[in-house]
Amino acid sequence: MWSTLVILHDKNLRYKNAEIPDFVSWHTCMRSIYISDERLLNVDFFSVIGQDIDVYRGFKAYSFLLEIVCGLHSKLFGESEVQAQFKDRFSEERITNLPLSHFLLKLKNQILEHSKIIRSSYLTGIGRQSYGGLCEKYIHNQIKVHLFGTGNLAESLLPYLVNNEREVILYGRNDSRMDRLKRQFVIKTKYWDEYKCDTQAVIIASSVFPESMFSKISKSAMIIDFREKDFSKVSSKNINYIPFHSMLLSIHDTTESISLLKPQVFQKIDQLTHLREDEQLHIMNGWEDLPQVCY
Question: What is the CATH number of domain 2-126+257-289?
Fold first, then answer.
């Protein structure tokens, strides 16, 4: 089945939240993935697709998607939030009415089965494998936090933030997302302009955070910034500013073990993919592929 799988990968988010005809999209904070069946596409599709987007076909597409779901292409190697996002995006209720629903459901189940094998065999005990776990390292003694953002990253942090009876205030600009997250977690929600300065921790889980917002934050407040760019100007104003690259450096003790682990993980994914490919080749010569004969 996966010989006709097609995946487009926009890692630079040039087409963020855009849709492509005959593809089903999956948008995360780091990338956009588009999934389709090659049999649905025009014969000239691959000749006109832009060069700024990666194209994977067949079992290479399957391997790549499995790598993504296992967190192998994430900034935090082996992080688990991406698997939860994948499972949610392709949950049965969200794909039931799509033309590719049957194809996607089988793909999701197979990817989750193989990712479970990879995680249980290789990705346990290599440090903090989730952004929420990494964040908790810094705010474990905070009784209140201000969380800016309502996207996938913010949602993945919330299960960790609401622990220990901690008060969590979520700031956003999307009413529907705020309402959904408020129903799902014990939190308060406010709009960005409702933030009032105090000494409690601030977590930035939004790709956009205006400079003017920093002027509202107390200089003694802890700021945990998940944006990937260098914000050295901010750190000079706030001694408790923790940028994302510093968080990654804090787990440098696992870097060496990860570098040794990576070849093994990718080799195992290659084995699982080829096993699936061999199974399909075997089926192709079976009864399922015999042509229908009408008399």
Answer: 3.30.460
